[in-house]
Design brief:
CATH superfamily of the largest domain: Jelly Rolls
CATH class of the largest domain: Mainly Beta
Helix content: 10-25%
Number of domains: 3
Number of strands: 12
Order of helices and strands: EEEEEEEEHEEHHEHHEHH
Low-confidence stretches: none
Number of helices: 7
Strand content: 15-25%
Oligomer: single chain
Shape: rod-shaped
Mean pLDDT: 89
CATH topology of the largest domain: Jelly Rolls
Amino acid sequence: MKLLTVTKDGGDESTVWAYWLVELKRWFSIALLCFENGSRDAFHTHAFRCVSFVLWGKLPEQHRDGRVIEYTPGVCPVFTRRETFHKVVSLAIAAWYNSAVSPAYKAWNTAVNLKDIRSLVNLQNFTPTDAAPASPSTDMTYQNRALQCQLKQANAHFLINGEGTVDCSPLQYRQSFNDCMTSIPSGASGANQNAGWGTSAAPGAVRLAMQRSTTNAEKLYAVASTAAPNAGNVGVDTRGGNTNPDTLVVIGSITSDDVQAARELP
């Protein structure tokens, strides 16, 4: 018999803590169970039938046939038979790995909407601000600058036209944006302007749109990008900042099964 005691429920390796109000094994027991991260990840049965109520959080129950039932706080009880072969899934650990790194850790986005990039390009800076010389004129300065602006604009249109998403992790792709969106001789007296790429030290809106924050799982496997300031990676800067984003290797979420498989590795 137990009265007002605290023990582990399920053996020494369990991280389920039982706060026993009363335990009379031949008759009944009443306890409050606290499931910590990764608790009861092994399939198991019970020595007796039980009726449970979820008081706080979530209780995801996985059965041997693969079914997962998630219980939440409420007045409806959870009935568990002695022969029920189940386990509590490690949602808390998986949820942490799937949450965003804090502070933010940046990587090149592998699926950026082209329309988002297109909306951030400053097309006005492809048009010379100087007035065209009166005709006829033998001074080709304006025409040469205008031709260079036109060539850069044509390359920019090639990169941003279309629909769908684009992978911004290849270095050559980002280098192309730098080539056509910087050093545009469209300012007064041919001063260079920028169409949204920015500089190596100060990323512009276009370059920032090519990055995204990573999850804890993604950061774990991310690798340093090739140092190339003109492509958005200043190698001497801190990894994961917006001047030196990483390259993703693992992309997306992990599952509770992934967590359990990792815990069972030798």
